[in-house]
Write a structure and sequence with these properties.
Elements (H helix, E strand, L loop, with lengths): L1 E7 L3 H10 L5 E8 L6 H15 L5 E3 L14 H4 L21 H10 L5 E5 L4 H9 L7 E7 L14 H5 L1 H8 L5 E4 L1 H4 L3 E2 L1 H8 L4 H21 L4 E2 L3 H8 L4 E6 L1 E3 L10 E3 L11 E7 L1 H14 L3
Parallel strand pairs: 1-2, 1-4, 2-3, 4-5, 5-6, 6-12
Antiparallel strand pairs: 7-8, 9-12, 10-11
InterPro entries: I/U_nuclsd_hydro_CS (IPR015910), Inosine/uridine_hydrolase_dom (IPR001910), IUNH (IPR023186), Ribo_hydro-like (IPR036452)
Pfam families: IU_nuc_hydro (PF01156)
Keywords: Glycosidase, Hydrolase
Length: 310
């Protein structure tokens, strides 16, 4: 069983990642930390609480950074995730309480107090983790690895060069990439293979139960906006690839690369520079995801949904 902290910005695909991490027996979810990203911090935090309450996931939820480390303005993705950041599902009145600890403090305390290394899973901008590393660098040695959704070794989605999560706080990503912690990158090159076609939504809907209904409600809105913005016939389920990799690494093929984040270029700000061919001769610092076993991936998602009915 792998101990993890899930740092996220829910977000439809983050919500599915929470669904998976909160139930699978191979994962011990120690807590959820939220950051501004897909929507403002207040909204992403409410969304995390709503998903946990709906699925009876009993872990602390801690609110974190509302702005990037350096830039003045927070980039959000309301064109994809809607006004609430989680448009589509209808939740009951929220009663689950927010943990009073700041997300950065929660990350530091949890790592310092653990007798074993913990994996950090980051599915939003990296601000919380970068701030924790800057506040207390001693915790870095307590991190087993960082599995994150972000970046691309090819094409971006908010600029031709940059992917949303890295672009939203490239300075934070720069800190994390240079921390020395082993990185596993689920970039757009990989996550765009996880397209949630209508047949997948129908398949998951047939399972029945709360988790099944949540998945269908989430994907109904998410797939519609993805088609409007990018022309996809099915929305790419970005963030759950991180959890699928935790559950079964064989579902994703990775390649060792040296990767860094561009923070000084005006037009390429936030680009992840992944040395695919090893031309720099730098020692690899990341496993960059290349190919998804699509059948295995959807089987893992289905397994997690079914576990809520047991």
């Amino acid at each position: 069983m792998e101990k993890i902290i899930l740092d996220c910005d829910p977000g439809h695909d983050d919500a599915v990642a929470i669904l998976m991490a909160g139930i699978h027996p191979s994962i011990e979810l120690l807590g959820i930390t939220t950051v501004a990203g897909n929507q403002t911090l207040n909204k992403t935090t409410i969304n995390a609480l709503n998903v946990c309450q709906y699925l009876n996931i009993d872990v602390p939820v801690c609110s974190g950074m509302s702005l990037p480390m350096v830039r003045k303005v927070q980039t959000i993705a309301d064109d994809i995730h809607g006004e609430s950041g989680l448009d589509g599902p209808v939740f009951d009145k929220l009663t689950k309480e927010l943990d009073k600890r700041h997300a950065v403090n929660f990350i530091i305390e949890t790592l310092k107090n653990s007798n074993e290394k913990i994996t950090l899973v980051i599915t939003g901008p990296m601000t919380n983790v970068a701030m924790a590393f800057r506040m207390d660098p001693s915790i870095i040695e307590k991190v087993k690895r960082i599995i994150f959704m972000g970046g691309s070794y090819q094409l971006g989605n908010v600029t031709p060069a940059a992917e949303f999560n890295i672009f939203a706080d490239a300075e934070a990503a720069y800190v994390v990439f240079n921390s020395g912690v082993p990185l596993v990158m689920m970039g757009l090159d990989l996550t765009r293979q996880a397209l949630c076609y209508p047949s997948i939504v129908e398949r998951m809907g047939k399972i029945g139960g709360n988790a099944s209904k949540l998945f269908v409600d989430l994907m109904g809105f998410f797939c519609k906006t993805q088609k409007q913005v990018f022309g996809w016939e099915g929305g790419p389920l970005h963030d759950p690839t991180c959890i699928a990799y935790l559950i079964d690494e064989s579902c994703i093929e990775t390649k060792d690369m040296y990767s860094e984040v561009e923070i000084r270029s005006e037009k390429c700000y936030g680009r992840t520079l992944c040395d695919y061919f090893g031309v720099t001769k730098n020692k690899p610092n990341s496993k960059v995801s290349i190919k998804l076993d699509i059948e295995k991936f959807w089987n893992i998602v289905e397994e997690c949904i079914k576990l809520y009915n047991k």
